[in-house]
Amino acid sequence: MPSYNYDEFSPDDYDFDTVEGPVVGQKAPDFELTTSDGRTKRLLDFEGDFLVLEIGSITCPLFQSRRGIMQPLQQEFPKVSSAVLYVREAHPGVDIPGHQNFDDKLACATRLKSEDGETRTVFVDDFEGAAHLGYGSMPNAVFIIDRKGCVRFQAEWNNPSATRKALAALIAGKPVCVKSYFRPALPPIALKTLGRAGRGSAGDFFRGLPFLIWTNLIKRNLRLLFNQQQGARKSPGC
Questions:
Q1: Name one Pfam family in it (predicted).
Q2: pLDDT at 19
């Protein structure tokens, strides 16, 4: 079993066939976490009617590709809070390596704010990834959680268009009838993200790319198309 904070990406670090986090209708796990600006705050202590929680890291091309679309949600929907859960580095390299301690993770989360201009609240997970594991451990999952702490929408891979449609439906009191198909990262952003991480990041990514295409772009999207559900972990309902 590899360490949670791996030094080299491998598809074996993720289970792409099983839903391990909370699904719609289940209680979202709450955690007391440090924010990127040094505050201590509970993850589910938010203002508004809903929280849009996106999983990410500075070396995740998917997360970086979605940030420009996800950040304005809180302005577009005034009764909504939006936050990032900063987790392990998805594609570490020599310049942005895997975290060796919590301070490394906090430093990367701070860079996300200061260098990349992230405007959302950034929660920093603990070193061993307790919150990330609690939410399924995928590198760019998204959850919409209501004031009662109930998951109202979730996707193992964030599709911002589907997330926005789901949020609009929930605010309007309508059922959510969207499918969150997997969309690959924008190539220019992916190359920039991997290059920034440094030597080793791109090589590890491209070695795993055929497997990632098969399991996510093809197999997962076909499951959604034909309404086939992935296996989900049992947990108490809301």
A1: T4_deiodinase
A2: 75
pLDDT in tens, 135-160: 999 999 999 999 999 999 999 999 99
What is the domain extent for residue 158? 11-226
Q: Which of 84, 80, 82 is nearest to 49 (CA)?
A: 80
Paired with 123 in beta bridges are: 35, 85
| Residue 221 one-letter amino acid | N
For the cut 90, the answer to whether the pLDDT of residue 238 exceeds it is: no
Give the model confidence (pLDDT) of 210-223 as tens digits: 999 999 999 999 99
Instruction: Quote the number of domains for the chain.
Output: 1
Sign of the alpha-carbon dihedral angle for 40, 25, 146, 223: positive
Domain holding 162: CATH number? 3.40.30.10
Dihedral angle, C-alpha 17, 20, 21, 24, nearest 10 °: 70
Whether 36 and 105 have beta carbons less than 8 Å apart is answered as: no
| Alpha-carbon gap, residue 168 to 145, rounded angstroms | 13
At 99-123, the pLDDT tens digits run: 999 999 999 999 999 999 999 999 9
Place of tokens 């309902």: 237
Q: Of the candidates 54, 32, 36, 58, which has an alpha carbon nearest to the alpha carbon of residue 44?
A: 32
